[in-house]
């Protein structure tokens, strides 16, 4: 029987979820499987609360009966474990995220998580970040000027569109500029530079945030990598 590597990775991460935890719920087709599995365990009696990283994940969690808490009730750094996907992950577990458009909420939740566990299929593992276009969330006001600044930085931005026409609008009411910087040699520097541009809200570089990367493979095997040590 064919194995879905995303499901494999998502369900493996859920093994880390324990009673009493406040869990961050990621966004995307891999995080989906983790949320579904958390929902199954909640039905079986697992006692957790959760915060979602997108309206999509919130709706899914509600449909599965996962108890949610408002983010404003969460103390700084108070999320025990967040399980989320990624578009690229390098050898140091630096990430590109935001292919699903949820990068801002994902980064806020990640920043207040004691542990960020990334789940993905093996195609997301790269030597150096930069093949996947880097999503940058920008405010609609003056977006063409902001895109000009991204162009000047070498990002060759394109405005994310829905069905090739209307701008894609994030859960926060913003636009996404997908940027092609080529090989990103210094992800930390680029992350900072981008966020200094007026009009940029956040970008999809997650540097030094992920604790663990769980990769599912089509042959049914998993590999697990931790930021400081390697295994699996
Ligand atoms: O960052 C994200 C959404 O903003 C997703 O986690 C990322 O795009 C990976 O998605 P998928 O698991 O569907 O490949």
UniProtKB/TrEMBL annotation:
UniProt protein name: Ribose-5-phosphate isomerase A
Active site: 106
Similarity comment: Belongs to the ribose 5-phosphate isomerase family.
Pathway given in the UniProt record: Carbohydrate degradation; pentose phosphate pathway; D-ribose 5-phosphate from D-ribulose 5-phosphate (non-oxidative stage): step 1/1
Source organism of the structure: Cohnella rhizosphaerae
InterPro entries, alphabetized: NagB/RpiA_transferase-like (IPR037171), Ribose5P_isomerase_typA_subgr (IPR020672), Ribose5P_isomerase_type_A (IPR004788)
GO molecular function: ribose-5-phosphate isomerase activity
BP GO terms, sorted: D-ribose metabolic process; pentose-phosphate shunt, non-oxidative branch
């Amino acid at each position: 029987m064919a194995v879905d590597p995303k499901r494999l990775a998502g369900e493996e991460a859920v093994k880390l979820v324990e009673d009493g935890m406040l869990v961050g719920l990621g966004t995307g087709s891999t995080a989906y499987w983790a949320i579904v599995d958390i929902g199954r365990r909640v039905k079986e009696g697992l006692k957790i609360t959760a915060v979602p990283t997108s309206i999509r994940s919130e709706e899914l969690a509600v449909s599965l009966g996962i108890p949610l808490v408002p983010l404003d009730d969460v103390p700084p750094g108070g999320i025990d474990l967040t399980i989320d996907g990624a578009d690229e992950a390098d050898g140091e577990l630096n990430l590109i995220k935001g292919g699903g458009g949820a990068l801002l909420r994902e980064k806020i939740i990640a920043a207040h998580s004691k542990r960020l566990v990334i789940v993905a299929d093996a195609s997301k593992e790269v030597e150096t970040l930069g093949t996947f276009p880097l999503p940058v969330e920008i405010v609609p006001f003056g977006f063409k000027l902001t895109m000009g600044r991204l162009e000047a930085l070498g990002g060759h931005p394109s405005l994310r569109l829905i069905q090739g026409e209307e701008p894609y609008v994030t859960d926060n009411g913003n636009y996404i500029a997908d940027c092609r910087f080529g090989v990103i040699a210094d992800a930390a520097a680029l992350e900072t530079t981008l966020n200094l541009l007026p009009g940029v809200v956040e970008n999809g570089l997650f540097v030094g945030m992920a604790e663990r990367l769980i990769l599912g493979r089509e042959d049914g095997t998993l590999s697990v990598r931790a930021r400081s040590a390697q295994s699996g």
